[in-house]
Write a structure and sequence with these properties.
By secondary structure, this protein is mainly alpha-helical. It has a single domain, classed as Ferritin, core subunit, four-helix bundle (Ferritin). It is built from 5 helices and no strands. The chain binds fe (ii) ion (2 copies). One fe (ii) ion binds next to helix 3.
Length: about 170
């Protein structure tokens, strides 16, 4: 049984996951129309993942005697200065989400809601992975984005990064 306080806080997290889904979709679309089809596929995947994060929350709230609310979302940023800007905005967004998750974990402990505490652990490790992923991508862009050849290389390599990290963890 969810407390009203936790139900409201988890519903606010739905809004954040939804906003991330929309922002990554916007970045995918921008990349696709700016000669970066590989990075576009990376952001389409990120967007799909954020939708899954949102759905997990919807199901958890509804199955814990709460009511999930489907939010409206204000339009995400449409245009970006550079590939680097998309990744820096992504990392800043992920860090903000990590803070919000930490606050939810704090709340779950304070009110002794151990079911929610347990549920939120998945998000704690997911945020760690996401921050590491975008940090790697930013490092790579700083090394290789000097010229057209570098951008061509980045467009081929960036989509592989998330997939590789999964493989490394299975080793
Ligand atoms: Fe997320
Ligand atoms: Fe994320």
């Amino acid at each position: 049984m969810l407390s009203k306080k936790m139900e409201t806080a988890l519903n606010e997290q739905i809004v954040r996951e939804f906003a991330a889904e929309q922002l990554y979709l916007s970045m995918a679309s921008w990349c696709e129309t700016n000669k970066l089809p590989g990075v576009a596929s990376f952001f389409y995947r990120q967007s799909r993942e954020e939708r899954e994060h949102m759905l997990k929350l919807v199901r958890y709230i509804n199955k814990t005697d709460g009511v999930a609310e489907v939010p409206a979302c204000k339009a995400p940023q449409k245009a970006f200065k550079s590939l680097l800007e998309t990744m820096e905005l992504s990392l800043a967004g992920e860090r903000a989400v990590s803070k919000a998750i930490n606050a939810l974990v704090d709340m779950s402990l304070t009110i002794k809601d151990y079911q929610s505490f347990n549920f939120l652990q998945w998000y704690v490790s997911e945020q760690h992975e996401e921050e590491a992923l975008f940090t790697d991508v930013i490092d790579m862009i700083k090394l290789f984005s000097k010229d057209e050849k570098g951008l061509f290389f980045l467009d081929r390599e960036i989509p592989k990064i998330g997939q590789n990290s999964d493989q490394i963890e299975k080793v």
